[in-house]
Amino acid sequence: MNTNTNNKDYKLVKMYDYVCKKFEECLQFECERFSNNNKPKLTDQEIITIYLFVMQHQGIYKMNKIHQFAHEYLLSWFLDLGSFQAFNQRINRLSNVMNTFVGLLLTEFTPKECSKVLSVLVSMPIITCSGKRSGKVAPEITDKGYCSTKSLYYYGMKLYTLGFCNPNRLTHPEQIIFTPASVNDLSLFKEAWSEKENLIFFGDKIYKSSSFFSAMKNKFNSEMLTPVKAIKGMPDVLKKFDKAATDLYSRAVSKIRQPIEALFSWIIEKSDIQKASKVRSTKGLNLHVYGRLAAAFISLIFKP
Q1: Of 256, 287, 89, which Cα lies nearest the Cα of 178?
Q2: Based on the domain organization, do 225 and 259 belong to the same domain?
Q3: For the chain: N or C, fewer Cβ within 10 A?
Q4: Which residues in 92-151 belong to E strands, given as ranges?
Q5: Is there a contact between 171 and 263 (Cβ–Cβ < 8 Å)?
Q6: Do 265 and 130 share a domain, yes or no?
C-alpha cells in the first residue's frame, strides 16, 4: 500500500487502526451496550472512522452527505453500512465517546516544544440560531449570548480554549471547555483556570480586572497580560503621554496571542464547527462540537 499521507486508503486504514486502539484502551467503556444487540455488524469503531474520515478527508459535514459518500465510495470497506437512519442514530449515541476521544488526541500529541509557563486564552461562539429568534435546541446547555467580535447576538454555546504557547507554530490546546453562550469570559477563567500556579496568561481586553489578578499573582504566582484597555474619560494629554508605551505593549501581547487566533481559524476551516443551526437535540449538539473537533485534530495522527 502507498504510505503517502495524502493517499485515501492509507488515511482510512490508519484512522481505523487508531480508533480501534483507543477503543481497546478506554473508549469501549463510554458506549457499553447491555441489550441483546450488543454486537452490531457495523461496529462503533467503523461508525466513528467513517464519520471522521469523510469530514477530515473530504470536507463533508452534513450527516446525510457523510452517509451518502460512504455508500458511494466506501462500501467495499464497510459492507454492513446500512441505512442513513440507522447510521445517524448510532453516531448520535457516541457523543460521549467523541468527548473523550478529543481529550486523548490533544494529550497524546502535545508537542514537546510547547511552553510550560506561557498560556493563551480565546473563545468563540457555536451558533444554533440567530438572537432574533427564540432558541429551542438543547436549552439545558445553550442560551442567548453576545459575540463582540462579530457584533452579534445569538443562541448557542461558547468554546473556550486554554492553549500552550508553541514558538513559530499554531497553539496547541491544553484544555477545551464548552459553556452556554451567556457565560462571561472572566467568570469562566476564575472558575476553571485562576488557581493554576506559576503561569503567565495572555488574554484579550475582557480579562482586565486589576484587583482580581493582583490577588492571583500574590497567591498563585500567576499573572494575566492583556492589551491595554482605554480608560473612559481619560484626558487626551494623558492618552498621548502613554501612547507609545501602551501601543508597544499591546502589540507584543497581541503577537503572542496571534497563533491561537490562527488555530481557531484553522479549526473553523477544517470542521465548520461554528455553524450548528441544523442540530435538533442535545445529543446532536454534543456530537457536533466534539465530533467536529475530533475531525480537525485527527490529522495529528498523520504527522511524523
Answers
A1: 287
A2: yes
A3: C
A4: 118-130, 143-147
A5: yes
A6: yes
- The reply to whether 71 and 43 lie within a common domain is yes
- Nearest C-alpha neighbor of 9 from the set 47, 68, 46, 53: 53
**Residue 213 belongs to a domain:** yes
pLDDT per residue as tens digits for the range 55-90: 999 999 999 999 999 999 999 999 999 999 999 999
The number of residues in the chain equals 304
Query: Are both 50 and 125 inside the same structural domain?
Result: no
Grid coordinates in use for 180?
A: 452556554
pLDDT in tens, 203-213: 988 888 778 99
**Distance (Å) of CA 50 to CA 4, 47, 67, 189:** 20, 5, 8, 36
Which helix (H) or strand (E) is 60 found in, with range? Answer: none
Please count the structural domains in the chain: 2
Q: Name the phi and psi angles at 280, rounded to 5.
A: -125, 5
- For residue 280, the surrounding DSSP H or E stretch is none
Q: Which domain holds residue 86?
A: 8-93
The identity of residue 132, as a single letter, is K
Which of 172, 205, 207, 211 minimizes the C-alpha distance to 192?
Answer: 207
If asked whether residues 79 and 127 sit together in one domain, one would say no
Terminal CA-CA length for the chain:
18
- pTM score, whole prediction: 0.89
